Amino acid sequence: MASKKPSGDQVITRMGQYLTYLLVRGLEAVLSVLPLTFCARLGQFLGTLSHTVFSGPRKLALRNLEIAFGREKDLDWRKATARKHFQSLGANFLCSLKFQVMSEAEIAKRVTIEGTEHAQAVVASGKPLLYAICHLGCWELLTNIPSLFCFGRKPATVYQPLSNPYLEAHLRHRREKLGYALFSRSDGFGAPIKHLREGSSAIGVLVDQHAGDKGIWCPFFDRLASTSSLAALMALRCDAPLLPMAVYNDGLARWKLVIYPPVNSGEKKATAEGLTSMLNIAVEVLVRRAPADWFWVHNRWKTPKPDFLLSKYRRGIVLPKGYDGSRLQPFNLLVRSPNWLGDACMAMPAIRALKQGRPDMRLTIFCQANLKELWSAVPEVDAVVTKAKKEGISSVARRIQESGPYDAAVLFTNSTRSTLELKRAGIPRLVGYHGSLRSRMLHQVCPEPVSYRPPEHHAYRYLRLAKFCGAKTDDPSLFSPTVPPTGAEGAGTIRVGICAGAEYGQAKRWPMDRFAGVAAALSVQWPQVEWQLFGAPGEKAMGETLSQMLSNVSHRNRVGATTLTELIAELRACQLLVTNDTGTMHLAAALGVPTVSIFGSTEPVLTGPLGDRHRIVRHHVPCSPCFKRECPFGHYDCMTGVTAEKVARLVGEELGKGLAVSVA
Predict the structure, then answer these.
(1) Which phi and psi (to 5°) does residue 366 adopt?
(2) Does an H or E element contain 169, and which?
(3) Is residue 661 pLDDT above 60, yes or no?
(4) What phi and psi, each to the nearest 5 degrees, are found at residue 442?
(5) Fewest Cβ atoms closer than 10 Å to its Cβ: which of 227, 382, 442, 453?
(6) Which of 96-100, 199-203, 404-408, 580-584 is least confident?
(7) Total count of domains within the chain
(8) SS3 category, 11
(9) Is 136 exposed, middle or buried (0-12, 13-18, 19+ CB in 10 A)?
(10) What is the pairing mode between strands 614-618 and 361-368?
């Protein structure tokens, strides 16, 4: 069968790869006639130029240095270290190209070695020689001087093959000529372990790179980083001491090779996870010895995608033995709250799921100013940032920037404006639903549910967004009361709330005289009930009217007289709330207060309170639910069809349940 003809794109790619190969070989030819010290100086100059010209790598290096040293070194130190690092990279890169035309003996003259006694002790014990290698200084030096650290054993390395096949073949030829056995990471670790078990071998494994979805999440400079467990697994499978090894700059075109004591010395019951976490601490010690020498332009603390929460990762999170978890640097997540009180309450299970998604989570809520008291009362929320109703996008973005920085943001709103505010704030990962005209601004778009499934309650819609970020959402405790109710205060007193308003519009309001009728009827049966009237500041007149209707019933009119914090406290003291479909209804449900809720123009399947202590009352008519603020026909049959007698019966049943529970 004839081989498949390569596509035009494949041909262009191959041509580009071959040209890159020719460029490298040409550069090697030029460097071959230049002194090594000149190559190093030229590399330093090119590194300085790169630091000035290429803002992306420079910003990445500064960000990484801030993570590693931000709590102990100032900005000037970090900038100077980044600049020195680029010079080191340039010098070592050109020197590594020069090595290709130098003999091992010539290169070895430029290297001093420290800590050989640790490796020689392993050789004397007859155990395999296993090195944990870091991207420090001129790490490519190690592939050119195996005789300095293998002590007569056959050298080998586990490496990541280059995507350029011509360069890959060129480097493999050079290393194999020096006697190296090469094992690709993509082929697993069966072959390297077999090689190590032969006893007469030495092998090096790079251990300081981001390991993606397959890694173990453990602290590195007190920030969780995905770390490969390959070196730890090899050490355990082969009973091999794991010796960290580093190459440091030691003057112009000179280096120091340092072998450190094994990290698993004295660990009789070590696990791969525990040893990997210990190895991260050891690498940190190596980096601190010469901070400018480490590879800061690698995204070591990369935020995984799409699951930036870590609860689903198979290998999970591991802290070193004796490590104080409070030292962990936070993963800063910003959540854009819904604007309505009821929607915000329905988002609370998702907030709880997000918070539980990783132990280093610091969760900040960004919301309208009127919701600050609500979110400040939620235990899972670490901070609240607010915005005014008519505040400009630039002003909001600045405030978000000043309160950050943030690693990611989740939007529970669908508007383009709310997305633009977070985009302008420079948050690197924005997650949300498609929304209106904003999908290009989002980095992760959560898919909508398939259309043939039943309607989805808003609370589960928010939870699905949290699940898309990697949260576990099947825990029933996510729906536990945010702040548990206290029950009635005072001997023999039962407090029952009434919320007869609805800011959304008249179509959601049950007639006030029927609320009054329910209270009057039940006060005969339950004389110990004190009725609490709740409502928004704009509903004061409604509250006064209802209060007059209840002149012969024990009650307190709190409509428009409470802050949100006070409303939370007073709702917690209620045994039950009788209410329209309102934000107060959702707040009561979030607090664990049972409700009897009257629905008309809206749909309880979508926005009703969840749980078996909440009773829904509705009168079905052909046009319900219409989701309109005002009834198009003017007679509100969906609401007037609900009788006071039916509501009173349900309230009485719930009061009876509550009394039975309290007696028990």
Answers:
(1) -110, 120
(2) helix 165-177
(3) no
(4) -90, 145
(5) 453
(6) 199-203
(7) 3
(8) helix
(9) buried
(10) unpaired
Note if the bond before 241 is cis, omega within 30 degrees.
Answer: no
Q: Which has the closest alpha carbon to 133: 305, 345, 321, 279?
A: 279
C-alpha 651/C-alpha 598 separation (Å) is 12
Assess if residue 9 is contained within a domain: no
pTM: 0.87
Write out the residue range of the structural domain in which residue 534 sits: 494-663
Residue 489, pLDDT > 70, answer no
Residue 535: the pLDDT is 94
Tell me the residue type at 173: H
Residue 69 maps to a domain = no
Three-state DSSP string of 516-560: HHHHHHHHHHCCCEEEEEECCHHHHHHHHHHHHHCCCCCEEECCC
Q: How far apart are CA 425 and CA 441, in angstroms?
A: 12
| Dihedral of the alpha carbons of 42, 46, 48, 49, in degrees to the nearest 10 | 140
Picking from 652, 619, 625, the residue whose alpha carbon sits closest to that of residue 637 is: 619
User: Amino acid identity of 650?
Assistant: L
Asked if the structure places residue 500 within a domain, the reply is yes
Q: What is the pLDDT of residues 287-339, one digit of tens each?
A: 999 999 999 999 999 998 889 999 888 778 999 989 999 999 999 999 999 99
Q: In terms of domains, do 466 and 507 share one?
A: no
- The percent of the chain in helix, strand and coil, each rounded to the nearest 5, is 45, 15, 40
**Are 587 and 543 members of one domain?**
yes
Q: What is the pLDDT of residue 157?
A: 82
**Domain identity same for 365 and 470:** yes
